[in-house]
Amino acid sequence: MRYIAHAIVYTQDEIIDDGAILIDERRIIAVGHTAALTVPEGAEVMDAAGLIVAPGFIDLQINGAFGDDFTVAPDTIWRVAAKMPRWGVTSFLPTIITSPRSQVTWAQEVLDGGPPAGWQGTMPLGLHVEGPFLNPQKKGAHNPDHLRLPTMAHIEGWAPRQHVRLVTLAPELAGAHPVIDALINRGVVVSAGHSMATYAQAQSGFQAGIRYGTHLFNAMPPLEHREPGLAGALLTAPALVVGLIPDGVHTHPAIVSLVWTAKGARGLTLVTDAMAALGNAPGRYLLCDQEVIVTDVDARLPSGTLAGSILSMDEALRRFIQYTGCTLQAALPTITSTPADVLGIGAERGRIQPGAYADLVFLDHQLAVQRTMVEGALVFDVQS
């Protein structure tokens, strides 16, 4: 049993000064003021005086890090995940981009096999399969040789129990609607992205069951006042949540602020879309089977096309607050409760509340990560 004391605790609904959290094994059993919670006999006491304790961050789109690319080598998922707690990320969806079907199968097998003995780190919640059902006109950094039209045969075995949680596709493609219907009936979240959809086609996709939008504004036509397209449809659909890369490169700071105004915390998830160079020095890396040139600022194909980001989740939070002027309390749901709700797991992740997993991030007042806890285990301490 663990007892965290004297923290500034950010729950979903309030900020508790001099707050305490009691953890039994992997889950939270009580939250309140330090003076009001009794320390159980034998509990390990963790003093968090001067630190902010928030729900652990959730990233719904990350392609790799530390030199490893999940699509090229899905067996690196556990290795990368062991290092991700330094950014406050407690759970994530490793993303497999457009590639041969065998790469998704391989990634499913990696997750099915579970972590290596003694492993600790950021918990993979399942896969985000981004492609191959994308519009060639908005392929971005995806290899066009692997793109294809949606078919029922291609999605055989794609379900949450088989580790596929989120699928990005272009809703205007022939055959998309039966695939959308099949996926949502299995419990997979379907997202619109890499698309040339008109406003009407986007609305039709939403009616078919699409509930999310992948990296808003990127790999879709720009917002146009006479034909709002997919971007306009996503921005104006109250029930849909959008992913946004707030690095100042994929989206200008003013656009980040605009999206915040339009969608709010319940309609927005910050994602990194980070690729293999995250956590490493600039240089040349792979995104699937394509070479990417990485600088201190961005990651691009030799053609100049953006190819993922080098943004960490804690930096995404800091930039988002800088760009929008919102408070930490207002921003936190975009990387905690809202992504958890998108996946239908909001009762157990993304919130500090009794019954939830003890996924916690400890921040200083500059919002730098000091400690990270995943399911009650301390997996990162900046002082270690």
Task: Based on the model shown, name its key terms.
alpha/beta; nine-stranded parallel beta sheet; Urease, subunit C, domain 1; eight-stranded mixed beta sheet
Task: Give a quick precis of the structure.
The chain is 21% helix and 27% strand. The protein is of the alpha/beta class and 384 residues long.
Q: Care to describe what's here?
A:
Strands 6, 9, 10, 11, 12, 13, 14, 15 and 16 form a nine-stranded parallel sheet that branches. The chain has helices at residues 77-83, 101-113, 176-186, 199-208, 229-236, 253-263, 313-324, 328-331, 337-342, and strands spanning 2-10, 15-24, 27-33, 44-47, 52-55, 57-62, 64-65, 68-69, 89-97, 123-124, 127-130, 164-169, 189-192, 212-213, 241-244, 268-270, 283-287, 290-294, 299-300, 360-363, 369-374, 377-381. A hairpin with a 2-residue loop joins strand 2 and strand 3 (27-33). It has two domains: 2-54 and 351-381, Urease, subunit C, domain 1 (Roll); 56-342, Metal-dependent hydrolases (TIM Barrel). The relative contact order is 0.16. Helix 4 crosses helix 5 (229-236). The protein is 21% helix and 27% strand.
Mean pLDDT comes to 97
Main sheet record: 9 strands, parallel
Rg is 20 Å
CATH architectural label of the largest domain: Alpha-Beta Barrel
Low-confidence stretches: none
Q: What do we call the CATH topology of the largest domain? A: TIM Barrel
Counting DSSP H or I runs of 4 or more residues, the number of helices is 9
Helix percentage: 10-25%
Could you give me the name of the CATH homologous superfamily of the largest domain? Metal-dependent hydrolases
Strand content: 25-35%
Number of strands: 22
- Name of the top-level CATH class of the largest domain: Alpha Beta
The secondary structure category is: alpha/beta
Terminal CA distance reads: 21 Å
Name the shape in a single word.
globular
Overall tally of structural domains: 2
